[in-house]
Amino acid sequence: MTKKTGLFVLALLVVTSAFAQDGPGRISFTLDEAQQYAIEHNRTLANASIDVQKVQASKWQTIAGMLPQITASGSYSNMMGYKMDLGQMQLSMPPYATFNLQTSLALSGAQIVSLQVADISRKMADITVQKTEQEIAEQVETLYFSALVTEETVQLLEENLASMIKLCKITQNSVDVGVAEQTDADQLKVQAASMESSINTTRRALEMVYNTMRVQLCLDDDTEIVLTENIDDLLSTQRSEALLNEVFDIDRNYDFQLLKQNTELARKQIALTGWSNGPTFSVYHQYNGRHNFSNEPTMNMTPPNMIGAQLNIPIFTSGKMSAAMKDARLSYKKQLNQLEDTELALRVQHHQLVYNLRSALEKYDIQKQNVEVAQRVFDNIAKKYEYGVSSSLDVTNAGTNLITAQSNYVQALLEIVEAQLALEQLLNK
Question: pTM score, two decimals?
Answer without folding.
Answer: 0.73
